[in-house]
């Protein structure tokens, strides 16, 4: 991961360093270190991980990942969960003891009935008995994620990850944004694949001032005629242009609302390139 640190910058690297990142996919999607750092600069931790997950999983939507219990357990073990239960009603019932009064998830109101409608996988942290409840509970804090009750509808329509705090925190049924790749890149497709499903949705998240064209992500400051200007130029007809930062520089343009066309400065030919007449669809 050392080389990718230079590419995305230290701040982004500290967020994604424990994920199984496809470095080549990141480089291909972000193109230049300048753009990579700009893309991650305004994202919070979860958005950064979500974007990384989106990039690294590009092209896998619709494909079922073949796997085994052993492979899934090994991955959970690597991120601190030493007990993993697959659809065992008796063992899952025993896990009710991990929830304090007033925070027991509603699944236990009728566990048998729930398991007829959902596949259920439960992952328990190895040190769960020593993890103290936070004074200011947060959904993704150590206590909230110390036991994950993962439920996948048997018809493949949706999944949810239940939180140990239950409704003490906001949206407790969307722990980790219902995305196991937040724990380990590729874990989501493993778990879904084990139950015979491909990804549940191909919907992309929206990130402010980040455009995705042809699986290339650009942090842009200006858009004109469907041409996006940032560390390089990106549009749907020509793809990536002027990405060589040793030769080209993209200006931001003036503050004049009527004349804020950015220019491409070509240092080699000592000229400014105006793309204002280019039109793409």
The number of strands is: 13
Mean pLDDT: 87
Q: What gross morphology would you assign? A: elongated
Task: Indicate the proportion of strand residues.
Answer: 15-25%
Main sheet properties: 4 strands, antiparallel
Gyration radius from CA atoms, angstroms: 23 Å
Distance between the termini: 38 Å
Q: How many DSSP H or I helices?
A: 9
Secondary structure: helix percent: 25-40%
- Uncertain runs: none
Estimate nothing, just give the exact number of structural domains. Answer: 3
- Listing every helix as H and every strand as E from the N terminus to the C terminus, the arrangement reads HHHHHHEHHEEEHEEEEEEEEE
Strand order in the sheet with the most strands? 1-2-3-4
Structural class from helices and strands? Answer: alpha+beta
Give a quick precis of the structure:
With 281 residues, this protein is α+β, with helices and mostly antiparallel strands.
Task: Give a verbal description of the structure.
With 281 residues, the chain is an alpha+beta fold. The chain folds into three domains: 55 residues, no CATH class; 126 residues, no CATH class; 55 residues, no CATH class. It is 26% helix and 20% strand. The strands form four sheets. It has a four-stranded antiparallel sheet. A hairpin with a 5-residue loop joins strand 3 and strand 4. The longest helix has 12 residues.
């Amino acid at each position: 991961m050392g080389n990718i640190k230079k590419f995305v910058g230290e701040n982004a690297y500290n967020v994604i360093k424990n994920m199984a990142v496809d470095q080549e996919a990141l480089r291909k999607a972000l193109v230049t270190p300048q753009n990579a750092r700009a893309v991650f600069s305004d994202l919070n931790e979860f958005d950064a991980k979500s974007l990384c997950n989106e990039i690294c999983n590009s092209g896998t939507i619709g494909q079922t990942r073949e796997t085994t219990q052993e492979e899934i357990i090994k991955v959970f073990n690597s991120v601190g969960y030493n007990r993993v239960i697959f659809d065992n009603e008796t063992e899952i019932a025993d896990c009710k003891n991990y929830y304090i009064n007033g925070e027991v998830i509603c699944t236990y109101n009728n566990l048998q009935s729930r398991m007829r409608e959902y596949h259920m996988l439960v992952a328990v942290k190895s040190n769960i008995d020593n993890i103290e409840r936070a004074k200011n509970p947060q959904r993704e804090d150590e206590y909230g994620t110390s036991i994950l009750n993962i439920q996948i509808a048997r018809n493949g329509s949706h999944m949810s990850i239940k939180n140990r705090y239950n409704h003490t925190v906001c949206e407790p049924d969307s722990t980790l944004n219902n995305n196991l790749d937040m724990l380990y890149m590729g874990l989501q497709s493993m778990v879904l694949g084990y139950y015979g499903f491909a990804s549940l949705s191909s919907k992309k998240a929206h990130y402010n001032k980040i455009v995705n064209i042809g699986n290339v992500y650009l942090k842009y400051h200006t858009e004109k005629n469907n041409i996006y200007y940032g560390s390089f130029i990106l549009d749907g007809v020509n793809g990536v242009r002027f990405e060589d930062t040793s030769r080209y520089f993209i200006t931001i343009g003036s503050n004049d609302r009527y004349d804020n066309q950015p220019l491409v400065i070509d240092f080699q030919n000592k000229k400014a390139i105006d793309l204002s007449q280019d039109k793409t669809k």
